[in-house]
Amino acid sequence: MNGLLNGKRIVVTGAARGLGYHFAKACAEQGAKVVMCDILEGELAERAHGLSEQGFAIESCVIDLAEPHSIAQAFSTIGERGPIDGLVNNAAMATGVGGKNMIDYDPDLWDRVMSVNVKGTWLVTRAAVPLLREGSGIVNVASDTALWGAPRLMAYVASKGAVIAMTRSMARELGEKRIRINAIAPGLTRVEATEYVPAERHQLYENGRALSGAQQPEDVTGSVVWLLSELSRFITGQLIPVNGGFVFN
Q1: The domain 9-242 is classified under which CATH number: 2.40.110.10, 2.40.50.100, 3.40.50.720, 3.60.110.10?
Q2: Catalytic: 156?
Q3: Which residues are registered as beta bridge partners of 215?
Q4: pLDDT band at 191 (very low <50, low <70, confident <90, very high)
Q5: CB 93 within 8 A of CB 115
Q6: For strand 132-141 and strand 33-38, is the pairing parallel, antiparallel, or unpaired?
Q7: How many other CB atoms are found less than 10 A from the CB of residue 3?
Q8: I need a labelling partner for 32 at 20 to 30 A (CA). Which of 6, 55, 106, 194 fits?
Q9: Burial level of 73, CB count in 10 A (0-12/13-18/19+)?
């Protein structure tokens, strides 16, 4: 099915690489004008230019989720070009945040992860709400690690659990504005951010899924497109694990 997002303007954070880039591309392929946001200015410009060269309607905007002023400035710039119809909260600290048990975990690293993954997601959503048209959709990218309790990854797991809970609370408030918000919980996906993950963790996932094998970005993008489209217009506050059946909700 093509054209699910025709005429919509969608903001995607963390769009310079990994799942975020694939979310941006998938939305563009479905007819959306996509605003790609990321802290990685050089990679963002390169990726945005690449999609524009393919004929897609692309804008780009640098954003740092650890800095409230950066978030406010980014959405001020986005708003100058008009309203939006959707938001994908994908940006997060996901690399270099694991490998230590709860006893040895660095409290400062914990604070940084929470600041970006939880507070940053809230502040981005807050900044986006005044720009969102009635009937818009928001997708928060959580993780199935929060469902099965992945060890030696405590701050990340806790942050994604908070995103899931926050999604439900936000749904109660944003419903008054006819804005839908849902979360997806991808499993371990083969992208740049997971290259550092030990081989045994990849094997655990790939052998433990009901649909065995590696998870690719294309296995995740369809759920985001669907949640942003009119096909999900009466769905809000929900969590959808997208992990091939490694863990069930």
Answers
A1: 3.40.50.720
A2: yes
A3: 189
A4: confident
A5: no
A6: unpaired
A7: 11
A8: 194
A9: middle
pLDDT tens digits for 121-130? 999 999 999 9
Instruction: Supply 154's token pair.
Output: 């405590």
For 201, phi then psi, to 5°, come to -70, -40
Q: Phi first, then psi: give them for residue 2, nearest 5 degrees.
A: -110, 160
Residues in CB range of 87: below 8 A, 6 or more apart: 10, 11, 12, 13, 124, 125, 128, 132, 136, 137, 138, 139
- Of 205, 195, 119, nearest to 163 by C-alpha is 119
How far apart (Å, rounded) are the C-alpha atoms in residues 159 and 146? 8
- Tokens 């997708």 sit at which residue? 139
Percent of the chain with pLDDT over 90: 94
Helix, strand or coil, per DSSP, at residue 73: helix
Please identify which of the residues 21, 105, 156, 205 carries the catalytic annotation: 156
Q: What is the DSSP letter of 230?
A: G
